[in-house]
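Dear colleague,

Thank you for sharing your sequence with our group. We've completed the structure prediction you requested, and as agreed, I am returning the results in plain text so they can be pasted directly into your records. Please verify that the sequence below matches your submission; if there's any discrepancy, let me know and we will rerun it promptly.
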Amino acid sequence: MKNLFLFLLLFCAGYTLAAGTDDFKISGTVTKKGGGPLSGVTVLLKGKNISKVTGADGTFEIASPVAVRMIAPQTQTLSFTLRGNAVAFSRSTGKLSGNVTVLSGNGRCIASTDFSGLNPANEQITLPQLASGFNIVRLTVNATVYTCQVLRLGSELHLINKHTDVASDGGFTLAKRAASSAVDTLLATKEGFKNAVRPVASYTLGDVSIEMDSIVESTGDIPWGMKENPTAGCTVGELPGYSSLSANSKLPDPFKMLDGKRITSKSEWACRREEIRQQLFKYIIGEKPIPAEGSVSGTVTATKISVNVKEGGKSCSFEVTVTMNGATQPAPALISYGAGASAPSGVASIRFSAIEASGGSGAKTGPFYNFYGSNHPAGYMVAQAWQISRIIDLLEQQPDVIDPHRIALTGCSRNGKGAFWGGVLDNRVALTIPVESGIGGAVALRLVEQLGGGEWPYHAISYVRWLSEVALGPFTNANSAGGDNTDRLPVDVHAAMGLIAPRALYVVDNTGINNLDPKEAWVTANGGKAIFEALGMADRIAYVGAGGSHCQWRTQYTAQLNAMIDRFLKGNESTKTGEMTGGLSVNLGQYIDWDTPKLDGEM
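Please find the predicted structure tokens below.
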């Protein structure tokens, strides 16, 4: 007489054996942006805390683990859970020794694993995944044999000839339950690629498509585009004081290291970049500190982002408003400081209220100064950039609504200055769009005296301290040639543009208002373009100039705006970008006396 076994199959969520939970089965394919299937991607179903790794064909299937309970004739009870290709025992006491064998329907041994002294509380046995069709799982545990005959259909396990939704004949029970109506999220991660987030509206989905974008185009170790400051690992020596600096009316050579050597490879740019960053802090804008990891918390919704920063007894909080604008979550987003470029349909709009106070002295206001002190030497552009970075910190923690690596910044006039420095000082910003930013923005400071612009560098630390009165103060003390010594600066704004690479920069300028220093802006943009060109990415910087009323968007700007957003926020790499048009006629050779090198290798 055949042995009588009692089989009970329960479908469970997570790793529990709880009855009454929901089945789930989500399958699909992960592909590389612009390429084919992507293997080795971990796809996590967040609500269920279950993950799978894609194979060579890029496919994945996340399904309910199945618990199988078997009662042997020797009256010894054992239960185990099949978690994908792992067998975990539920027995809570004593060590287990024995063998697990997987057989095909015709009795051929597919795999066999011996184990001895296994602790069922925290150890499990890894097997090949059960093949589709008929399988036999045979366990010999502490000299007792258990046999389970199972039919695998996709992710579901069935007893032989009992495939209905609910069936029972007293000897076994097979039960299936409907999927939950809850909405969940798939998170795809792989080293070297940006995390991909895919909301799901059902727990029973097939043919889900997930596309992942590589972090950088290079094979180097620098996390370009993924860190606030990706070159923080480079050491920069002591920088000289004002009295040790010599005057130079030309834009400083951005490719010359502090030791006087000129870089010859793209890999050398990282540490040259860090030198420029430290020079900007010391001589122009003041330092932008980065709080410790874990200091930022808050909430992200489709209408509002609330940011809290707390570290060492210091704290501050602020909010920005969100309009989804028809975008699919996780959405690309345009953070606007005020007037500037507008977010097209499909790109979320985030409104940032930039805080500043007029005057060249006294206590400074805003979250940054609440956190670091009202007399911190950094200018308001640094303070505003610091807030943008904390928003991105939070978006990286909660990426379901807004994609933290598809962020653009924009603003016009004083807010254009803020947008410019926000992109310069955080390499995670995908696209920076300063509009008519003038002095304190995308304009090299030393050029004003030579080209006759309307606003002098001193204006940027006296009217409002957009730049640092402490850092820049020694170089300028009046809105006149007599009070301007910015030609002694060892760094200028064209080099700051290079800090944005390999991300994208679109300078929008008004050539009809002399107070905006339009000639200076054109020369500066061409100096910045040289850096992008040397790095092999000249099409990631654009400039379009046109005359008219201040902060009035003009049709000349629109085509390049759409192209930049299409490529750098929406991910259409085939879109042509990099237009440089509309600048005023200037002899660039009078202000740039160095050549653009052809750098070898990769960044």
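Summary note from our side: Confidence is low (pLDDT under 50) at residues 1-21, 68-76, 161-182.

Kind regards,
the structure core
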